[in-house]
Amino acid sequence: MKIGVIGAGSMAEALISGLINGNVVRPEQIAVCNRSDRSKLMYLQEHYHVTVTEDKKELADRSEILILAMKPKDVEEAVLTLRPYVKKQLILSVLAGVTIETIQHLLGKKAPVIRAMPNTSAAIRMSATAISASGEATMHQVKMAKHLFETIGMVAVVEEDQLDAVTALSGSGPAYVYYFIEAMEEAAAEVGLDQEIAKSLILQTLAGASEMLMQSEKQAGQLRKDVTSPGGTTEAGLEKLKDFQFSEAIIACVKRAAERSREMQSGGQAAMEKVRKA
Ligand SMILES: NC(=O)C1=CN([C@@H]2O[C@H](COP(=O)(O)OP(=O)(O)OC[C@H]3O[C@@H](n4cnc5c(N)ncnc54)[C@H](O)[C@@H]3O)[C@@H](O)[C@H]2O)C=CC1
Ligand SMILES: O=C(O)[C@@H]1CCC=N1
């Protein structure tokens, strides 16, 4: 399987790192191009030994899968310059808020397109990814995409209209967790803990809680109650989280991110209109 990656940013690197370090594909099976920043290409070549090129034709000709990994605002230019070289390749987009219809419009044909929403934990093969395929994608191509993402984490197959919600939940999700950890680190300093010790305690606590949920038949709410002794420390701490409307804040966060994904989708439709009128 030969893969061409268009856009050499954070998500591209996470995918490349997961695929290569997990021995899923060999470096020579991956070629990457970027728009302007050549240093990023040099970095990827040096670290992962992938092929780098500035020539989209060369990239497309050698690839069976073309991964779109630029920012959504750049999709129009990227796909229009790629368009002459797209023949039978499967187009695999990781772009937030850019629909299959928009991509097919920019390509000027009903090419097989699979939208995926992974997250940056792909770098260590722990991504939570959801995929959705266009009707043009063959069963083989869907299986191939599913397999690709399964090798770097777990995969859920969803309807395309679910992808805004997925993006808000697990695509952006690592950032919420890192934000929580940053706050825990700040809290640890305020209660007088050494920074390094605090960091290991926080990370093991998160990993342990997450693993408990995976292994246990109990739901999160029950496991929380198991920790919370009546009149104890946890109850006192949780009261503060309630005072500051922790749940409401998380719900508002995910809802706003999903809404933003839908707004970005409207941007993509405007680009599609522009191409249609040109
Ligand atoms: N960063 C994340 O956690 C996740 C990002 N995504 C999606 O992945 C995509 C990329 O995100 P990041 O990697 O964070 O962005 P980034 O800004 O780090 O990387 C995008 C890269 O694409 C390049 N690029 C732009 N136009 C191009 C063109 N015409 N041809 C070739 N390269 C071009 C840019 O030079 C840049 O290096 C976005 O669409 C985002 O929605 C999806 C899931 C998670
Ligand atoms: O922030 C973003 O728009 C992208 C999509 C999911 C994670 N990062």
TrEMBL record:
It catalyses: L-proline + NADP(+) = (S)-1-pyrroline-5-carboxylate + NADPH + 2 H(+); L-proline + NAD(+) = (S)-1-pyrroline-5-carboxylate + NADH + 2 H(+). Gene3D superfamilies: NAD(P)-binding Rossmann-like Domain, ProC C-terminal domain-like. Its main location: cytoplasm. One of its GO terms (biological process) is L-proline biosynthetic process. GO terms for molecular function: pyrroline-5-carboxylate reductase activity. NADP(+) binds at I6, G7, A8, G9, S10, M11, A69, M70, K71, P72. The keyword NADP applies. Keywords: Amino-acid biosynthesis, Cytoplasm, NADP, Oxidoreductase, Proline biosynthesis. It is an enzyme of class 1 (oxidoreductase). It holds the Pfam family P5CR_dimer. Residues 160-264 form the Pyrroline-5-carboxylate reductase dimerisation domain. Residues 2-97 form the Pyrroline-5-carboxylate reductase catalytic N-terminal domain. Pathway: Amino-acid biosynthesis; L-proline biosynthesis; L-proline from L-glutamate 5-semialdehyde: step 1/1. Its EC number is 1.5.1.2. NCBIfam families: proC. PANTHER family: PYRROLINE-5-CARBOXYLATE REDUCTASE, PYRROLINE-5-CARBOXYLATE REDUCTASE 1. Belongs to the pyrroline-5-carboxylate reductase family. This is Pyrroline-5-carboxylate reductase. It comes from Metabacillus mangrovi. The lineage of its organism: Bacteria, Bacillati, Bacillota, Bacilli, Bacillales. The gene is proC.
